[in-house]
Amino acid sequence: MKKNIKEALTGLTASETPQGLPIPGRDMVENNAGGFVFKLDEWKQLERFLILGSEGGTFYVSERKLTAENANHVLLLLKKDGLRVVSVTVEMLKSGRAPKPDTAIFVLALAASKGDDATRKAALAAVPTALKTGTHLLKFADTANGLRGWGRGLRNAIQLWFKERGHETLALQLVKYRQREGWSMRDLLRLAKPVPADEVQGKLFGWTAKREKAEWAKAHVAPGVKALDFVWATEQAASLKLVAEKADNDEAKAILAAANVASTKKLVELIVTHRLPREALPTEALNKVEVWEALLQEMPMTAMIRNLGTMSKVGLLKPLSEAEKLVASRLTDAARLKGAKVHPIQVLSALRTYATGRGVRSSATWTVSQKVVASLDEAFELSFGVIEPAGTRHLLALDVSGSMGSGEIAGVPGLTPSAATAALAVVAARTEPWTATMGFADSFRDLGLTARDRIDEATRKVSGLSFGRTDASVPMTWALANKVKVDTFVVLTDNETYAGGSHPVQALEKYRQATGIGAKLIVVGMTSTGFTIADPNDAGMLDVVGFDGATPALMAKFAKGEI
Fold first, then answer.
1. 278, 283, 282: which is closest to 295 by C-alpha?
2. What is the pTM of this model?
3. Is 309:366 a contact under the CB 8 Å cutoff?
4. What is the pLDDT of residues 17-44, one digit of tens each?
5. Is 86 left (phi over 0), alpha (psi -120 to 50) or beta?
6. For residues 107 and 559, what is the distance between their CA atoms, to the nearest angstrom?
7. Who's near 439: CB < 8 A, 6+ residues apart?
8. Residue 473: alpha-carbon gap to chain centroid
């Protein structure tokens, strides 16, 4: 097809060009479906990759190929402006805009390995502050080791990560994130060999590197020092045994039951007194409702959201219980969600799984609390922050073509780009009172989505739908044909459009001219490809990243003309 493009363009105008051909006189690129679109700004492409990653790939491109394409793009940007790459990546890690930090960690490791001297130094210098948790550090170390091997720069960066944490924070990280990605904190300490800044730090390093369990179990090391108290309590918890209450006679069974009651009571005391996390406890203890009740009191928001199924399974979240009330109040506390930097994807993933009453990767089942489900639904909307509605006439157009039914958003099982658009659409519809919602592929269909839909219900409505080939001009042509007045078209898509007789930008221009409305177009990209249907030269068009926590507020400002 490429060889005959010039011939095919003969006689065509800039107002009516099939999507399988570029618009005459415009700089366009071919997408994976064979349609022509606009090249995404190179820094916007980086941003899209950092937020969406490449998990699950797309209908047209495998995960491996998509990752390779984006990695090559990062390498080009590192040569062009490595310090800017580091700056953008660090901002993404610190802001919590991305559903998962994995891609940003990968890019930071790439900058620390393949950048010039200044870039490598900047990337390594960011390690102590940008990598907030032990998991982040272990992922970074694993990636960097594969890309560059161990050297003085990497060793110094990891040394500083350990040394710059306060005693209590360090103790928590060492206990909570002992092992990830085939690496352990013990491995990192032995390789980096940080010199402790003081006695407390030295004891924490020694416990992690040498695991001097006997010393910590026999006696309380430096009682009154919270960080050391915490480690001591962890060892105490590990020493408590909970056994199956099986015996040959009632007397023996009663003895075992009494021992378990005593151990559980001691565990609860340790949890309450020392604020032990779930990771510090023996596996057997996590079947006890009393243990989860104690954990819940100081449980971080993200941990609470991840463990809703387990808490229901053990019987903690019973209807009208204090635990159910506490969980519901925390989930609907906007300030608490913001402070914990809870990402909308984390809430959506929990909602989709919890509402089913069964685990995705396990055989676990639980009785669903409808109070918790309703609170998760509200939490999803609240997790985007305060959004001032634009007050303009919005048409939300959801791409439900075949290509949108493939891949996963942020590695959430079953959360295809198509299903994810439904969740975003409901939030947008709740935010903007003057909104119509439609689905499209090669034609318009009513999806039956409303602002009153619960989020998990909305995603189910569009799951598995396919209306045919992708024509992203449909929203504008439909609105014009049906005399629907629209100020802002919002198209949620993977940008793999190819089937229409004219390009989306041409359809929008035709709509503007025919109606006299200066309609805007917001394109919400749902995959980390490097192209968009939004014309970069049109100030009335905006390309944003789906599931960027900042996207809804940005869209509202654009619709109002504030940006």
1. 278
2. 0.88
3. yes
4. 999 999 998 999 999 999 999 999 999 9
5. alpha
6. 32
7. 397, 398, 399, 400, 445, 446, 447, 462, 465, 467
8. 30
